[in-house]
C-alpha cells in the first residue's frame, strides 16, 4: 500500500449549534484519487476549509508527512504542498488570465522572471493559452473552473484538493475535465469533493462518504455504491426496502 | 507593464523634468511644478497601499503631519537637520500606521469601514495637534526658524533647489514601486480576492502591512518636504481632510494601482487647479471649483480606471475594429 502522506485524525468543527464536522478521520495515500461525497450540507467543503487552515479546528489533529499542520495559516499550508480550489471559482477578476496564473506561480518562485517562464506551460495544460490576455472577469463557467485548476497547479502542490470542479459543466465538458484530472493523477495526489456520481465513481480510487458531519462509509467505489448506509443517506430511510 | 519598459519611461520622464529645471520659468510656474511633483510623490506613496492593495485611505494626511511636525520639532528644539528628522518622522508614521493597520487587517476591516477608520485616525491626529499646544503650537501651527540657503539644513532661498529635491524624492518613490514587482502582484491578488490569494500561498497580512508601512513612510517624508518648502505648518493644512482627499484624487484620476497613474494625475490636476484658481478665483469666486468638479465627473464617467487606462482602452477598441473588419471580409468572400 502506498505511503500515507496526509492523516486526518478525529477532527471536529462546530459553528454555533451546528456540528459541521464530527470526529472525522481518514488518510490520503500518495498518488491516489480520494473521492469525498455526501448530501448537501454534509460538511464536505468545511472539511477542505479545515485541512487548508481557512477555519481553525476545534479538536483533533491533521498531520502531513509526520508534521502537524493544524493551526497553520492557509498560505503556510500551501507552501507545505497542499493547495485547494474553491467550489465557487475565485478568479482575480481585474487581472488577465496570464497574470492570474503568474500570481499563483510567484510565491514558490525565486525570481519574478522564473514565475513568468512557467505561465505558458500551465495555460496549455488547462487549455487557456488562447485566453491569456482576457480578464478574469470575462470567462465562461468552464473557463473559470479551468483557471481555478490552473492556479492551483501553478503552486506545484503534492496534494490537490478539488472542490466540485464539475458543477455547472455540460456532459462533454465533464468528460474533458475527467481526462484532465486523470492526467494530473500521474504526478499529483488528488482529493476531490464531487456531487456528480458518474464522475466520482469513474475516477476515484477510494471514496469516503460524509453525512451530517460524520464519516459514514469508506471504501472502493463499488463497495460504496452498494453500502446500505450510503443509500439511506442519499435516498432517505425506507429506500432500501423499496 | 514589464519592468524594463517602466524603467525606461521613468528615465525619460526624469531627463525631461531635469531639462525643465534649466528653462527660464516665472516663479509661479516653478511653484506649480514643485507642487505637482509633491503630489505625484505623495500619490505614489498612497497608491502602494490604497491603489494596489485596494485599501482606500482618506486619512493619509495624518502621516504627512507626523512627518512634518516631527522634523520641524526636532529642528527647532535640538537643531537636528530635517534630513535626519525626516527619517525619525517616517519611523513614527510607520508606528502610527502599525497601530491602525495591524488591527484593521487582522480583523478584516475592508471597504467603506476601513476608509471610515482612516478618516477617524486623521481626525484624531488633527485634534491631538491642536490640543498639544506646548509641542505643536496648537492651531497656530509651527514656523520653521529661518537659516540662509543651506543644503545641510534642507533650506533654500530660491525655488530651484526645492524642485531638485522633490524631483529626487519622486524618482526614488517611483523607482521603488517599479522594483516591488512581486509585492505589487501580491497586493493586486489580495485586492481582488483575499481567500484566493491566501490559498495560493500569499501571506495576506504580511503583504498588506508591508505596503501600509512603506506608504506611511513615504507620505511622512512628503510631510517634511512640505514643512521645509512652505516653512510653516498648521493642523488644518497638513493634517486636514483636503490634503488626504487631494492625495486620493490625484491617484484615482491618474489611474490607481498603476506605476505612473499618480504622476499623470498630479500633472493633470495640480496645474489645472492652480491655474484655474489664479485666473478665475478673484473675478468669479468659486468658479474654479465648479470647473474642477465637472472635470472630475467627466473623468469618473468616461475613465473610471483613470487616465493611465487610456492606451489600453484605445488598443482594445482598435482590436475590436480590426476583428470586425476581418469578419466582414470573410462574410463577403
Please give a structural write-up:
The complex is a heterodimer of chains A (242) and B (333). In chain A, 36% of the residues lie in helices and 26% in strands. With 242 residues, chain A is of the alpha/beta class. In chain A, helix 3 crosses helix 4 (112-125) and helix 3 (97-105) packs parallel to helix 5. Chain B is 77% helix and 1% strand. A two-stranded antiparallel sheet of chain B has the order 1-2. The radius of gyration of chain B is 21 Å and the shape is globular. The two termini of chain B are 39 Å apart. The mean pLDDT of chain B is 91. The chains are: A alpha/beta (242), B mainly alpha (333). Chain A binds chain B through residues 52, 54, 73-75, 78-79, 83-86, 90-95, 99, 102-104, 106-108, 112, 136, 151-152, 154-155, and chain B through 3, 181-182, 185-186, 188-189, 191-193, 195-204.
Order of helices and strands of chain B: HHHHHHEHHHHEHHHHH
What's the CATH class of chain B, please?
Mainly Alpha
Rg from alpha-carbon coordinates of chain A: 18 Å
Model regions low in confidence, pLDDT < 50 over at least 5 residues of chain A: none
Main interface by residue count: A-B, 30 and 20 residues
CA distance, first residue to last residue of chain A: 38 Å
Looking across the biggest beta sheet of chain B, what order are the strands in?
1-2
Number of strands of chain B: 2
Round the Cα radius of gyration of chain B to an integer and report it: 21 Å
Largest sheet, spatial ordering of strands of chain A:
6-7-8-3-9-10
Instruction: Categorize the overall geometry of chain A.
Output: globular
If you average the pLDDT of chain B, what whole number results? 91
Helix content range of the residues of chain A, please? 25-40%
Stretches of chain B where pLDDT is under 50 for at least 5 consecutive residues are: none
Question: What is the element layout, followed by pairings?
Answer:
The complex is a heterodimer of chains A (242) and B (333).
Chain A: E1 4-15, E2 18-29, E3 33-37, H1 44-51, E4 59-64, E5 67-68, H2 74-80, E6 82-84, H3 97-105, H4 112-125, H5 141-154, E7 159-163, H6 171-184, E8 189-193, H7 197-203, E9 206-211, E10 214-219, H8 221-226, H9 228-235
Parallel strand pairs in A: 3-8, 3-9, 6-7, 7-8
Antiparallel strand pairs in A: 1-2, 1-4, 4-5, 9-10
Helix pairs in contact in A: 3-4, 3-5, 4-5
Chain B: H1 3-21, H2 27-52, H3 61-78, H4 82-106, H5 111-131, H6 133-136, E1 142-143, H7 160-179, H8 181-192, H9 194-199, H10 204-230, E2 232-233, H11 235-239, H12 241-254, H13 261-280, H14 287-302, H15 310-332
Helix pairs in contact in B: 1-7, 2-7, 2-10, 2-12, 2-13, 3-4, 3-5, 3-10, 4-10, 7-10, 8-10, 12-13, 13-14
Amino acid at each position: 500500500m502506498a505511503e500515507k502522506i496526509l492523516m486526518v485524525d478525529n477532527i471536529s468543527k462546530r459553528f454555533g449549534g451546528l456540528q459541521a464536522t464530527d470526529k472525522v478521520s481518514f488518510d490520503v495515500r500518495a498518488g491516489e484519487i480520494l473521492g469525498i461525497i455526501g448530501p448537501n450540507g454534509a460538511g464536505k467543503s468545511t472539511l477542505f476549509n479545515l485541512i487548508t487552515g481557512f477555519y481553525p479546528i476545534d479538536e483533533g489533529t491533521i498531520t502531513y508527512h509526520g508534521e502537524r499542520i493544524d493551526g497553520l495559516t492557509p498560505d503556510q499550508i500551501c507552501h507545505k504542498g497542499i493547495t485547494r480550489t474553491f467550489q465557487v471559482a475565485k478568479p482575480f477578476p481585474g487581472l488577465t488570465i496570464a497574470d492570474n496564473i503568474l500570481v499563483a506561480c510567484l510565491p514558490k518562485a525565486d525570481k519574478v522572471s522564473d514565475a513568468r517562464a512557467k505561465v505558458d506551460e500551465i495555460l496549455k495544460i488547462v487549455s487557456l493559452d488562447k485566453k491569456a490576455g482576457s480578464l478574469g472577469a470575462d470567462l465562461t463557467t468552464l473557463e473559470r473552473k479551468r483557471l481555478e485548476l490552473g492556479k492551483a497547479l501553478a503552486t506545484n502542490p503534492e496534494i490537490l484538493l478539488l472542490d466540485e470542479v464539475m458543477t455547472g459543466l455540460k456532459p462533454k465538458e465533464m468528460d474533458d475535465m475527467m481526462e484532465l484530472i486523470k492526467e494530473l493523477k500521474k504526478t499529483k495526489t488528488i482529493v476531490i469533493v464531487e456531487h456528480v456520481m458518474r464522475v466520482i465513481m469513474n475516477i476515484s480510487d477510494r471514496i469516503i462518504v460524509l453525512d451530517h458531519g460524520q464519516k459514514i462509509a469508506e471504501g472502493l467505489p463499488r463497495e460504496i455504491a452498494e453500502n446500505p448506509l450510503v443509500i439511506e443517506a442519499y435516498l432517505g430511510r425506507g429506500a432500501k426496502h423499496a | 507593464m514589464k519592468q524594463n519598459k517602466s524603467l525606461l519611461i521613468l528615465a525619460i520622464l526624469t531627463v525631461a523634468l531635469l531639462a525643465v529645471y534649466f528653462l527660464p520659468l516665472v516663479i509661479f510656474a516653478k511653484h506649480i511644478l514643485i507642487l505637482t511633483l509633491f503630489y505625484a510623490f505623495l500619490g505614489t506613496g498612497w497608491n502602494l497601499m490604497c491603489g494596489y492593495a485596494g485599501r482606500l485611505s482618506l486619512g493619509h494626511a495624518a502621516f504627512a503631519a507626523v512627518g512634518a511636525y516631527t522634523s520641524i520639532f526636532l529642528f527647532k528644539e535640538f537643531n537636528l537637520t530635517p534630513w535626519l528628522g525626516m527619517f525619525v518622522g517616517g519611523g513614527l508614521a510607520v508606528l502610527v500606521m502599525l497601530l491602525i493597520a495591524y488591527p484593521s487587517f487582522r480583523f478584516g476591516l475592508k471597504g467603506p469601514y476601513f476608509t471610515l477608520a482612516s478618516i477617524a485616525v486623521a481626525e484624531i491626529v488633527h485634534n491631538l495637534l491642536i490640543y498639544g499646544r506646548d509641542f505643536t503650537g496648537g492651531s497656530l501651527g509651527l514656523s520653521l526658524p529661518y537659516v540662509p540657503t543651506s543644503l545641510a539644513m534642507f533650506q533654500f532661498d530660491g525655488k530651484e533647489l526645492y524642485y531638485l529635491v522633490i524631483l529626487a524624492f519622486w524618482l526614488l518613490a517611483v523607482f521603488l514601486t517599479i522594483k516591488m514587482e512581486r509585492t505589487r502582484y501580491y497586493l493586486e491578488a489580495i485586492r481582488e480576492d483575499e481567500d484566493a490569494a491566501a490559498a495560493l500561498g500569499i501571506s495576506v497580512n504580511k503583504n498588506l502591512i508591508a505596503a501600509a508601512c512603506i506608504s506611511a513612510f513615504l507620505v511622512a517624508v512628503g510631510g517634511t518636504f512640505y514643512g521645509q518648502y512652505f516653512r510653516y505648518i498648521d493642523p488644518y493644512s497638513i493634517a486636514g481632510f483636503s490634503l488626504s482627499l487631494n492625495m486620493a484624487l490625484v491617484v484615482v484620476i491618474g489611474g490607481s494601482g498603476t506605476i505612473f497613474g499618480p504622476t499623470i494625475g498630479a500633472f493633470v490636476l495640480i496645474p489645472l487647479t492652480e491655474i484655474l484658481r489664479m485666473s478665475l478665483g478673484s473675478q468669479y469666486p468659486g468658479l474654479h471649483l465648479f470647473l474642477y468638479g465637472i472635470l472630475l465627473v467627466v473623468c469618473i464617467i468616461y475613465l473610471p480606471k483613470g487616465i493611465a487606462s487610456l492606451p489600453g482602452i484605445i488598443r482594445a477598441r482598435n482590436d475590436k475594429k480590426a476583428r470586425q473588419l476581418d469578419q466582414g471580409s470573410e462574410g463577403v468572400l
